[in-house]
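step: validate -> pass
step: tokenize input -> pass
step: predict -> running
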Amino acid sequence: MISAPTRTSTVTLADARTRYTAGRGYLAACTLGLPTIATTAAMRADTAAWARGEACASHYGAVVERVRAGYAELVGVTPDRVAIGSQTSVMAGTVAASIPDGAEVVLPIGDFSSMVFPFLAQAHRGVTVRQVELADLAASLTTNTWLVAFSLVQSATGTVADSVAIAAAARATGTFTLCDTTQATGWMPVDAAMFDATICHSYKWLGAPRGVAFFTVSQAFAAYLHPVNAGWYAGDDPWASCYGPAMTLASNARSFDVSPAWPAWVGAEPAIDLFRSLDLAEVRAHSVGLGHALSDGLGLPRLGQAIISWPDAGGRDLARLTTAGLTASGRAGRARVAFHLFNDEDDVALALAALRP
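step: predict -> pass
step: emit ->
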């Protein structure tokens, strides 16, 4: 289990729950997070300012830097180790394009495609992708493995990877680590410093608008990566990098920046501010407790997860949840529900009533 980066929480779970206008029956944070009142207000204000002709590029740039710093604090690294972008696959693609010709990558079977396809796409260079069961990931690393890439929480099943064992095995074999924390950051503590690189798209558990993603990278690993998506925003001084012919990139993680979708970052700022002010161990205990309550009611094992899923190949259980007015999802032939800070025991009761008519 990952421990929380050291910081002082200033917002209680009870207070955080009052900052949402919805949540009852919404069991889909693993698909699309809910915005807080502050996020929707910020985006409305920004749209109004844009309509009045008052939008300002330098203002957006300042917002991005505040969000970068806030996210860095949330996951326990310094801002110079955080690059910004909009999509998981693009960030994973930067790492994939930097893998040496003929090198080996180890992935868990069934991981989300944005953490799989970028590596499979390197086959033309002789890059070998070996996929193993998640539980076997640590034991599968060898001195020939250049990179192990995995999601901290599996999208389809909610399974939490044994990141401590994987990181230890990677150190022992000289393997680099890339961890996707998209399905983890927001409901559980995440320490990005454990890994050579991490990726997080914040539109799920962090409740930010889609299009706000983060890439953390250690200085040592960054030396092996090529900024294949370099554009003006990756420049040492972005406002001096708008035109060629010379390229002077930032000397830190910003060299991997992708130009931000500005309005999305306006909405992300209050979202990130909220979660970096919470005790994420408390959020985890709350979410997992609800997951255990549902598991008990369905006769499923307690697995310490905020995402609960079970076989539902025909979609019958998902249809029951939907018919009852609940928002859930289906993935890989499984029904899937998620419990977050805006859910409570009543949501568990509603789900059980729908599933046990």
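step: describe -> The CA atoms of residues 214 and 291 lie 27 Å apart.
step: cleanup -> pass
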